Amino acid sequence: MRCAILADIHGNLAAFQAVLEDLHRRGAVDELWCLGDVVGYGPHPGECIRLLRQHAHLCVAGNHDWAAVGNIDTSYFNPEAAAACQWTAEHLTPDDIDYLRDLPLTLRQGDFTLVHGSPREPIWEYILSTWSAQENFACFDTRFCLIGHSHAPLFFELDQGGLCQSRQLPGDLSLKEEKRLIINCGSVGQPRDGDPRASYAILDTEESIIYHYRIDYDISLTQQGMREAGLPPRLIDRLSLGW
Ligand code: ZN
């Protein structure tokens, strides 16, 4: 089976389209696996939901998805994220709202657990340190867990001696060793690792490899849409800088 792993699209249609074009150039995939935050920040939330839904896919809920439909409140959001969330909420159709409201917190597919934040706290927790990763390895029972939320392409490995280490996500990550992994393939629509290109991956379960890609897209197109929508300037600027 071949699956695209996408996370944190964040209403950035130009980035999402560029990723899908790259994906189609690389051959067919069976499903898109989306790790939440389809909306929030970007100017095309409904368009991104509908484009995702045109494909065979799985999707879990992210904090921005649920905040936009009132499943959770925005009191933990910074003022700019809350303003973008409010704008997003006003630009969803009833069908978009039903879709986001019904997204599950966690999914399990074979050897993989899918969550937005962490298996322990699927909506809110960021896994960025080895100590939080180590605690989270006890919170899922598949070999692998795919996460989003931090927008940073990295992975954590737990060896059989219980040692947990963190590394940058390489261009190809082998799943053949007998280690358990928590893997973040980065963000499609708002990368935060200093590289503004869209980030995504393809999982090939027969080869047992995750291929990680960075894709150029027309950032100015998304920024223009954000300006027209009146979204906060800092959110517009950060897209060019990749933070
Ligand atoms: Zn996000």
CATH architectural designation? 4-Layer Sandwich
Number of strands: 12
**Alpha carbon gyration radius:** 17 Å
CATH topology call: Purple Acid Phosphatase, chain A, domain 2
Globally, the shape reads: globular
Low-confidence stretches: none
Strand order of the largest sheet: 3-2-1-11-12-9
Question: Please, what is the CATH homologous superfamily?
Answer: Metallo-dependent phosphatases
**Helix/strand order:** EHEHEHHHEEHEEEEEEEHH
Overall tally of structural domains: 1
- Give the overall pLDDT as a whole number: 97
Characterize the main sheet: 6 strands, mixed
N-to-C CA distance: 33 Å
Helix count equals 8
State which percent range the strand residues make up.
Answer: 15-25%
In short:
The protein is α/β, with parallel strands linked by helices and 243 residues long.
